[in-house]
């Protein structure tokens, strides 16, 4: 198993819903579901890896409040070196809707303060040689993002492959943000964007052609994955082969963090030496289980081996 790490945004998610239509100002709405849980792209990925029994490193931070203490407790030993920022912990309130869509209200909080210097102190880069480091929450971790070039230089020097999931820019896909994402992709070995992000960065409305454009920007052996929600997930392998996997049909509880869970299971399968189509299957199946269960379940430490056996059946 090749080593894994995740670097980026860990925050608190408060999930409420479903509600429809959007309530009028000054009113109160009673909802059926509420859940307070670890959130953020890095947090969701780490939770999935933990449930799947995957060994990994994580570089993140928290704020100096009760939510920060709660997050550190949730990750126990893995959070012992996390810096405590002089700010409140970032909080994201997700309002779910009956059509599986959601609306987020998020505070800036501590996330913009996470720095490259801090990340360096939290990672054992020698132990990451030959593995993958997932870089996520790009447009929320301002200080780290400003030093992405230094992070890529470090990864190159230590033989670490970078997988990138930028997330959605707060000000949308402006030309500046598209240019930044393009620059990062050129130095990444794996793109893990969703369909809207892929088409926005590439400037192409067709998902397959957009994936090919991203592939042409990246290193020759790079992999491009496009997450297309309830439809399917597609990918272009290092040799340019297009593969896909149909997303399993499930009764959705909430889709928040589905892409992050997919990233976790996909990278775990990839680092275990599986073919790309098997990795897509693992990612989609584990994510489908997560979004259809409450409390959320990801499977157990034997999930990857069980799914691999299913995929190998004649």
Number of helices: 11
H/E topology pattern: EEEHEEHEEEHEHHEHEHHEEEHHH
What class, by secondary structure content?
alpha/beta
List low-pLDDT spans.
307-314
* Percent helix range: 25-40%
Overall 3D form: globular
Portion in beta strands: 15-25%
What separation lies between the terminal Cα atoms? Answer: 25 Å
For the sheet with most strands, the description reads: 8 strands, mixed
Strand order of the largest sheet: 4-1-9-10-11-12-13-14
How many extended strands? 14
Task: Name the assembly state.
Answer: single chain
Radius of gyration: 19 Å
Mean pLDDT: 93
Description of the molecule:
The protein has 314 residues and is α/β, with parallel strands linked by helices. It is built from eleven helices and 14 strands. It has an eight-stranded mixed β-sheet with strand order 4-1-9-10-11-12-13-14, sandwiched between helices. A four-stranded mixed β-sheet has the order 3-2-7-8. Strands 5-6 form a two-stranded parallel ribbon. Helix 7 packs across helix 8 and helix 9 runs antiparallel to helix 10 (276-291). The protein is globular and about 55 Å long.
């Amino acid at each position: 198993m090749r080593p894994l790490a995740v670097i980026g945004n860990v925050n608190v998610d408060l999930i409420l819903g479903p509600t429809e239509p959007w309530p009028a100002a000054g009113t109160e709405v009673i909802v059926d579901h509420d859940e307070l849980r670890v959130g953020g792209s890095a947090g969701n990925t780490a939770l999935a890896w933990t449930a799947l029994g995957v060994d990994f490193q994580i570089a993140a931070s928290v704020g100096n409040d009760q939510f920060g203490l709660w997050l550190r407790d949730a990750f126990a030993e893995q959070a012992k070196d996390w810096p405590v920022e002089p700010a409140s912990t970032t909080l994201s309130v997700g309002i779910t809707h009956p059509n599986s869509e959601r609306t987020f209200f998020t505070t800036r909080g501590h996330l913009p303060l996470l720095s490259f210097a801090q990340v360096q102190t939290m990672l054992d880069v020698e132990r990451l040689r030959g593995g993958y480091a997932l870089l996520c929450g790009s447009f929320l971790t301002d200080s780290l993002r400003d030093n992405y070039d230094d992070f890529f230089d470090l990864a190159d020097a230590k033989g670490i492959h970078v997988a990138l999931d930028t997330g959605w820019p707060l000000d949308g896909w402006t030309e500046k943000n598209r240019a930044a994402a393009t620059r990062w992709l050129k130095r990444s070995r794996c793109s893990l964007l969703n369909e809207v992000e892929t088409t926005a960065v590439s400037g192409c409305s067709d998902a397959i052609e957009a994936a090919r454009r991203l592939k042409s920007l990246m290193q020759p052996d790079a992999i491009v994955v496009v997450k297309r929600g309830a439809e399917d997930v597609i990918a272009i392998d290092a040799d340019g082969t297009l593969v896909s996997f149909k997303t399993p049909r499930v009764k959705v509880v909430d889709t928040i963090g589905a892409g992050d869970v997919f990233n976790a299971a996909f990278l775990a399968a990839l680092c275990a030496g599986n073919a790309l189509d098997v990795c897509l299957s693992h990612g989609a199946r584990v994510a489908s289980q997560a979004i259809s269960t409450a409390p959320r379940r990801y499977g157990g430490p034997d999930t990857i081996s069980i799914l691999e056996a299913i995929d190998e059946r004649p």
